[in-house]
Design brief:
By secondary structure, the protein is α/β, with parallel strands linked by helices. About 25% of the residues lie in helices and about 25% in strands. It is built from seven helices and 19 strands. Strands 1, 2, 5, 6, 7, 8 and 19 form a seven-stranded mixed sheet that branches. A five-stranded parallel sheet has the order 10-17-11-12-13. A three-stranded antiparallel sheet has the order 14-15-16, with no helix packed on it. α1 packs parallel to α2 and α1 packs parallel to α7. The longest helix is centred in the last third of the chain and has 22 residues. It is elongated and about 65 Å long. It starts with 5 loop residues before the first strand and ends with a helix.
Length: about 325
């Protein structure tokens, strides 16, 4: 339970964006409350965000030897806590942004906020195979981020599932490392934009398996292969691969704010240019819930910093 009911700043989410916002807000003497986890649509939504499901993080500045995802998030949390951030575990049930202070109804009680920072993140769309979760936290496993994990597949054969821009972008990026990239798509044509299609078709390291879907990920300690089913013939085949990348899109954890904040067609919160401000004064958004382009820990952290500074300036201007 929170220690009190009224806060100057409440931050929803405890990933890189939320915890960086907490660090800056607490250093500005705003005494923020961080509500950890529980506003998302991803069943793996946990305090600390997606990095809690990641093993080695090698692309976050300041850690030349790499760091485990959970350890990195623990450091974020302890640093914010050191400056006075309050934390509570809670599941957001309802939010009223029609008037200030904003009212947040949690399972654990009701809190009010003069300013709200939304950093609820986004979750990758998955196929729903049990093996996805089993291999998701392993190198040589199943991933939804080529930028994060592609480096680990130097000279390997990998599989990419999907047919949109995300899949073509992931496949093309992976050819910088993998010896071969096989794209599996459930139709006989791609949904990706023409420029992305042309780029993939011209890449000699990318092969395509049409009218097919991934039925099973094979392997014990690591991914060793994949079972593919042709949707027209029903015929199943197996291929040797060293990793699987699921690239069928992401789902921002923003459904609870529908009808109260402007969002794009995919559900990402719209923020004003060069700021974290949303269409409701006093509400700010940071991280993957408003970023459908980069989706990196370092960019999420940067936007969390922006949100805290924007919130501080808003409260100062309001005399709070």
């Amino acid at each position: 339970m929170p220690n009190k009911s009224d806060y100057r700043v409440v931050i929803l989410g405890s990933g890189p964006a939320g915890l960086t916002a907490a660090l800056y807000a607490s250093r500005a003497s705003l005494d923020p409350l961080v509500v950890e986890g529980g506003a998302g649509t991803d069943p793996t939504d946990v305090p600390g965000g997606q990095l809690m499901l990641t093993t080695d993080v090698d692309n976050y500045p300041g850690f030349p030897e790499g760091i485990l995802g959970p350890e990195l998030m623990d450091r974020f949390r302890r640093q914010a806590q050191r400056f006075g951030t309050e934390f509570t575990s809670g599941t957001l049930q309802k939010v009223d942004l029609a008037r200030r202070p904003f009212t947040l109804s949690l399972y654990e009680g009701v809190v009010r906020a003069d300013a709200l920072i939304i950093a609820t993140g986004a979750g990758a769309r998955w196929l729903g195979l049990p093996e996805e979760l089993e291999f998701r936290t392993r190198i040589g496993g199943v991933s939804a981020c080529a930028t994060c994990d592609g480096f680990f597949y130097k000279g390997k054969d990998v599989l990419v599932v999907g047919g949109g821009d995300t899949a073509m972008e992931e496949a093309t990026f992976l050819t910088k490392f993998a010896s071969k990239v096989t794209v599996v798509h459930r139709r006989d044509t791609l949904r990706a934009s023409k420029i992305m299609q042309d780029r993939a078709f011209k890449n000699p390291r990318i092969a395509f398996v049409w009218d097919s879907t991934l039925e099973d990920v094979l392997g014990r300690e690591r991914v060793e292969g994949a079972r593919i089913v042709n949707l027209k013939t029903g015929r199943a085949s197996e291929m040797k691969v060293d990793g699987v990348f699921v690239a069928i899109g992401h789902v921002p954890n923003t459904r609870i704010f529908e009808g109260q904040l402007e969002m794009d067609r995919a559900g990402y919160i719209v923020t004003k240019e060069n700021s974290s401000r949303t269409t409701v004064p006093g509400v700010f958004a940071a991280g993957d819930c408003q970023d459908h382009v980069y989706r990196q820990a370092v960019t999420a952290a940067g936007s969390g910093c922006m949100a805290a500074i924007d919130a501080e300036r808003f409260l100062d201007a309001e005399g709070h």
